[in-house]
Predict the structure.
Amino acid sequence: MIKRECALALLVQADIDGELDAGRAADLIRHRADCPDCQAAYADLMMLRDRLRDGDLRERAPDSLRHFLARQSAAMAPPVKPRRWYPQASFVIGPALAACIAFALFRPAAPDPLALVVDAHVRALQPGHLQDVVSTDRHTVKPWFEGKLDFAPPVKDLAAQQFPLTGGRLDVLDGRAVAAMVYQRGTHPINLLAWPAGKDGDHDPVTQDAKGFTTIHWVQNGMILWAVSDLERSQLEEFVRLWRIN
Amino acid sequence: MTGPALHQTFEAVVLPHLDAGYSLARWLTRGRGDAEDVVQEALVRALTYFPGFRGGNARGWFLQIVRNAAYASLSLNRGVPEPVAPDEETLPDPGDDPEAALIRRRGRADLARLIASLEVELRETLILREFEELSYKEIAQVTGAPIGTVMSRLWRARRSLAVAIRREEMDA
């Protein structure tokens, strides 16, 4: 580990961390028998593991945090600052003005597309909600959308790149009908939502995380596109990259 | 779910991972006060996000929030953290003589100092793997780094610790 590194050193580490399946672990043991570098790496990693486990360097949370959590749980609602502020202010400035301010404050805000898209994804994950047309063939999925939408969504299949199209459905975001195309990577569904961009110009993908999901949105050929999934960020970015060049 | 039921469940979900969250915050920030502030902030955020939590890996979910709160706090990276001190109150093993107990305690303090001096990306990856025993995939989720990066950070962290330990042993 110290003098020289074998190309398989990361696998030695992965083995110790329990990340290899039995077959690869057995291959690696055979390799290690002939590789002094990997033997040294293994010895160092095991030494370090023993030291760290022995060291007991974790620290217990102080009771003040347990009490904080308990108080937080006992409260009916999380502390939302504007709400606490608002009733006090109304005493000072008079009811009429307060009513105006309240109107301004609580007027429905422009919906946040990120939240809408993530909600749509969560909705789609409910049993039976993921797709209305089930097909791995884009020539079935694409015509299915026709007549249901006032635009033609870009339907692409990425089966050859390990992101097979599994179907499509209609969704409604903020009162607008959108096309939802469903792709799959392993057991992870990817929702790709599309609707016309109007006068917005094309822009490159932007990755954002929300509520444990990864989202990527971009504008391409006059279409707003949002990909949402619980896939790892790098994999969803790969999906978007492939989709864009296909 | 609304009202008390929601919050009761929130406590049930988060409490088992509070120590892990504090321990992580402790290694990412400079001292106990900072760590406590970070976890408090994380608890406030976690309660806000909780309606969107779909069950599953609660530990990874909470640690990710703690980690992000630590990065958001100004205390991060303003210097090397004060190392987590090995607990002086720990009772020595029955078979230990006082001298052996002292050596062990010193060894722990040295180890803590070495960990504290790692770069923050290496440090957090090592902590999540060695102390919280997260899988590579879970570490990737918590830190937002691809799995390949997790593997190489872990490797670099361990290599620099192993080199330092061997060197100190030779000096001793």
User: Anything to note?
Assistant: Helices of chain B lie at 3-14, 18-28, 32-49, 58-72, 98-116, 120-130, 136-143, 147-171. Chain B touches chain A through 59 residues (CB under 8 Å). Residues 88-92 of chain B have pLDDT under 50 and may be disordered. Chain B has two domains: 3-72, 117-171.
